[in-house]
Amino acid sequence: MFLVAGVLGALALALAWPVPVLLSRAAWPSRAPAVALALWQAIALAGGLSMIGCLLAFGSAAAGSFPAAVAQLAPALLDGPVPSAFGALEIAALALAGAVALLLILNLAFTAVRAERERRKQHQLVDVLSHPLPDDPRTRVLAHPALLAYCVPGIRTTTVLTDGLIEVLDRDELAAVIAHERTHLGQLHHLVRLAFRAWHSAIPWFPIANRAERSVVTLTEMLADDGARRLVGTDALRGALERVGNAGESGSFPDATPGASPDAAMLAARLVRLERLDRLDASTGDRGAAQDLPRGLPGLVLATSVGLVAISLTGYAAILGIVP
Amino acid sequence: MASLGELERSVMEMLWTNDAALTANELRDTLAVRDGSGRVVATTTMLTVLSRLERKGFVSRSRVMRPHRYRALLSREEHTAELMHEVLDQSTDRAAALARFVGTVSEGEANTLRRLLDELAHH
């Protein structure tokens, strides 16, 4: 059991600090945003599981397994002394495990409920305030001068454009914007963002949570860019990004400034990426061609992602006494 | 047959252009004229639409006398300001509700907008 606690503890530490820092600095994720997004999710999931698992394993070591520890401790909850095998540290570890699990789960639930309420509100306002495009009822136009496009996910999805945006973008650029938003909706980016938002708001003082959320937002933007590129082409998308331009992407936490302040760094990263992809397209003559990744890297990343989650789940099997 | 959503929008357009409070029948008749097609929606449909709009906080109903009269609760501009405020607000979980923008307002515009919205909010 101490071995399990040690392994999970080491994993939790690695996933809490060095691994996310390295990943958020790495260059390859912009070339393989989909597998990088999978890796981020595996890191968050395995990180949370292993941290809680480490505490559970340490706290129940004296009893041999978590169910056995519960069986021994449950009577003491009502009356009677705590079994002598359990010291203050063990009890504290078990209590902390419960508290952390509760914090993460409740935060996810509250974030999801608030997001759902907000989505419903948006649909109501958008339905009444905007009119649908004649040839595309899922895209709606809002009379407002701001340069803005966004999408409202849900069972019924809507992409909203403003008058102002339609005025400054040409036809292809608008198509690119719509394709970009549709990709967000189609790939359910709001769900993965929601999870990372909840994680961030559960531990707002933890800089890695902010870094992780930013990376995840950037990756979903890149995936949406790829959707637009495939459908409309790189030029139109770049044109749209440059035109709404100094605006930039605001779907993130710029570290210090709250509000709709544009995130210039994220926009720059996307534009640099599009330029590189453009050159690549030109040299291979194939739009959306395979990116210039080292062969085998996506497979390796996916295997790592599965491995991280598998290790933490194996730890739980040991904690529950399913495997010795 | 127009969808309920389209009817809601048309009804709000009428209430926004009319300052006075209107009854369901008046709204139904105005809609038929505006529409130009001569199609008349059933009064029950109109009442359904109005009670949906009331539930969503778009119209208020005066029950002082029969038939009940309806008026827009806020102006179109105020609702638009509310919507923009929620879309631009990054400080809460609202951002998580909407998969984000491709582009948004420029920094100067965002500041102006926020100021306007704040003024509206404190109004």
From TrEMBL, chain A:
- Specify the Peptidase M48 domain's residue ranges: 120-199
Q: Which GO terms describe its molecular function?
A: metal ion binding; metalloendopeptidase activity
Q: Which GO terms describe its biological process?
A: proteolysis
Any Pfam family hit: Peptidase_M48
Cofactors, names only: Zn(2+)
Q: Which CDD domains match?
A: M56_BlaR1_MecR1_like (cd07326)
The UniProt entry, under InterPro entries, shows: Beta-lactam_resp_regulator (IPR052173), Peptidase_M48 (IPR001915)
Q: How does the cofactor bind to this protein, according to its record?
A: Binds 1 zinc ion per subunit.
Domain of life the protein comes from: Bacteria
Which keywords appear in this protein's UniProt record, sorted alphabetically? Hydrolase, Membrane, Metal-binding, Metalloprotease, Protease, Transmembrane, Transmembrane helix, Zinc
Q: Which residues cross the membrane?
A: 91-113, 300-323
Entries under PANTHER family matching the protein: POSSIBLE SENSOR-TRANSDUCER PROTEIN BLAR, SLR0241 PROTEIN
Name the family.
Belongs to the peptidase M48 family.
Name by which UniProt lists this protein: Peptidase M48 domain-containing protein
From TrEMBL, chain B:
Q: Name one Pfam family in it.
A: Penicillinase_R
What are the leading ranks of the lineage? Bacteria, Bacillati, Actinomycetota, Actinomycetes, Micrococcales
Q: Name one GO biological process term.
A: negative regulation of DNA-templated transcription
Instruction: Report the domain of life of the source organism.
Output: Bacteria
Which named protein is this?
A: Transcriptional regulator
Native organism: Agromyces bauzanensis
Record keywords, A-Z: DNA-binding, Transcription, Transcription regulation
According to its UniProt record, which protein family does this protein belong to?
A: Belongs to the BlaI transcriptional regulatory family.
Query: Would the keyword Transcription be found if you checked this record's keyword annotation?
Result: yes
What the entry lists under InterPro entries is as follows: BlaI_family (IPR005650), WH-like_DNA-bd_sf (IPR036388), WH_DNA-bd_sf (IPR036390)
Molecular function GO labels: DNA binding
